[in-house]
Specification:
The protein is α/β, with parallel strands linked by helices. The protein has 15 helices and 15 strands. The chain has a 9-stranded mixed β-sheet, with helices on both faces. It has a 6-stranded parallel β-sheet with strand order 3-2-1-4-5-6, with helices on both faces. Helix 1 links the parallel strand 1 and strand 2. Bound molecules: nicotinamide-adenine-dinucleotide (NAD). The site of nicotinamide-adenine-dinucleotide has 23 residues, from helix 1.
Length: 481
């Protein structure tokens, strides 16, 4: 469905996020007929470019990150014609008049979004600047992305900065995991099918595993990452958001505040982690031809964790006693993001031992490397060999389904940017959610920050203690394929 004509002002338009994600996402939305030709994109950054110079940068971004569809010359011409550029150092008052010149003062009936693709220290000055320049009204929105603070106090302060100039319904806090097809599909699976929800509780679910494993190290991000670590960089936002969608009660409607109210209740029901053995922090060591974290970050005495595993519990009626095991790390064996819901075994086996063992049912939602939903089951091995049990997987890999209909898998940012224009906040975090997540995280970091993390081999599944975290409970992590 096409959106109404809009103005999108991208602060940090020459940066990595804008070139790698935003420009290609907007192009695809136009290519698929959703972004109208009279929409306007205004790039803002410090670089002294003119509009033509920035369009050349946007073209290069399409060449590099736009895929097959970006080769359509006519579509490119139309898309580039929507782009303007304003050189502006947001810390200097002088430049703001140039942005005023590029935009009509009132939004009118065109939604106007300010996308802050810049470091967080610029969030306040930009919120202030667009307001002081008289560029905001009831039809404007502001879009921000992690890091949304580094603890509860800083997150609350940030919420306060935006609240000074925008109402909550104008503030779009992106967690791009929520824009992924599989993650939205988790809600469709749970709430549009009859047979999952009756089983979706402590009586039938043994445990939940949430994994976000990366192969890369911190690379050039060392100075940013050091002192932040995996808990603040990944668990506070992405992993807890995934946990919320698994654990939340059915909202009464698929409507922004109904969904976010339910997520907030989950965050508030997270039991404080009281046992230190339920938190495992790791840091990658050097490997053959690969520097260690402390070398990568150039911080020889750093105790920042590049891996963390946690055993969490949602202390409410539905989930009491069901562990949610979370893990995320860098320089691991493979790049995998997935949520696995592991069901309890059948209560009694009627088959003789020689039939083999029935595996637990596992509903796995994979976000990376390719999006898929699989359901692990046990079936009879086909053939005349008698009753032998064998594992089987129901595979709903999107690439296969979409491939059959020749569709492209849209990137999360495509969906999210269009939702901003439509004013739909369902897939965005509300300020109180961000604060509730920090409150839980802060209580843990207060106890473990500064402890020496366990070194782990690059290319492994993390430190041994992370394996023990589950072995102690008679369970094991899923393989990092
Ligand atoms: P970047 O360093 O590549 O780009 C920063 C942009 O900000 C540049 O366009 C630069 O010109 C502009 N800028 C810097 N100082 C300015 C000033 N004084 N006035 C006006 N513009 C100024 O950063 P990035 O990787 O694009 O990330 C932007 C933000 O998004 C960061 O907060 C980052 O944490 C967050 N983020 C990035 C990614 C990603 O994939 N790159 C993912 C999630 C979140």
């Amino acid at each position: 469905v096409p959106v109404d004509p809009f103005d999108l002002v991208v602060f940090g338009a020459t940066g990595d996020l804008a070139r790698r994600k935003l420009i290609p996402a907007l192009y695809h939305r136009m290519h698929d007929g959703q972004m109208p030709e009279d929409a306007r994109i205004v790039g803002v950054a410090r670089a002294q470019l003119d509009a033509e110079g920035y369009r050349r940068m946007a073209e290069a971004a399409l060449d590099e990150f736009g895929g097959e569809d970006a080769r359509d010359a006519e579509m490119r011409r139309k898309f580039l014609a929507t782009i303007d550029y304003v050189p502006l150092d947001v810390m200097e008052e002088a430049g703001w008049s140039r942005l005023k010149d590029a935009l009509p003062t009132a939004c009118g009936d065109r939604p106007r979004a300010f996308y802050l693709s810049v470091a967080p220290r610029f969030f306040g000055p930009i919120a202030e600047g667009v307001h002081a320049a008289g560029l905001t009204d009831a039809n404007s929105r502001i879009v921000i992305e992690k890091p949304l603070g580094h603890d509860l106090a800083s997150a609350a302060a940030l919420n306060g900065v935006f609240a000074g100039h925008f109402s909550e319904h104008q503030i779009f806090r992106i967690d791009h995991y929520l824009g992924k097809e599989t993650v939205q599909n988790l809600m469709a699976l749970r709430f549009a099918n009859a047979f999952f929800e009756p089983l979706w509780n402590a009586r039938h679910i043994d445990h939940v595993q949430i994994t976000v494993a990366e192969k890369v190290g911190v690379e050039g991000r060392g100075p940013y990452y050091d002192g932040i670590g995996a808990m603040r960089d990944m668990v506070q936002n992405h992993l807890l958001q995934l946990l919320c969608l698994v654990a939340m009660e059915p909202p009464s409607q698929f409507e922004p505040d109904a969904v976010r109210d339910e997520k907030l209740k989950v965050l508030r029901a997270l039991a404080p982690l009281t046992r230190l053995e339920d938190v495992v922090r790791g840091q990658y060591a050097a490997g053959p031809g690969m520097p260690s974290y402390v070398e990568d970050a150039n911080a020889p005495t750093s105790r920042t964790e590049t891996f963390i595993a946690l055993k969490a519990e949602v202390a409410n009626w539905r989930w009491a006693g069901v562990p949610f095991y979370l893990r995320t790390g860098k320089r691991m064996k493979s790049r995998v993001s997935e949520v696995a819901v592991v069901f309890k075994s059948a209560p009694h086996s009627i088959f003789p031992a020689a039939s083999g063992r029935a595996a637990q049912n596992v509903l796995a939602l994979r976000l990376q490397p390719d999006e898929a939903i699989t359901l692990g089951m046990t079936i009879k091995e086909p053939g005349p060999g008698g009753m032998r049990l064998a594992p089987a997987v129901l595979d709903m890999t999107f690439a296969d389904t979409l491939g059959a209909s020749n569709m492209r898998m849209p990137d999360a940012y495509e969906r999210l940017v269009m939702d901003v224009i439509r004013g739909d906040q369902t897939l965005f975090m509300r300020g109180d959610e961000v604060e509730a997540a920090w409150a839980w995280v802060d209580a843990i970091t207060a106890r473990v920050d500064g402890e020496r993390p366990e070194l782990y081999e690059p290319g492994s599944a993390g430190p041994d203690d992370a394996l023990m975290l589950m072995h102690r409970d008679g369970r094991r992590w899923r393989e990092l394929a």
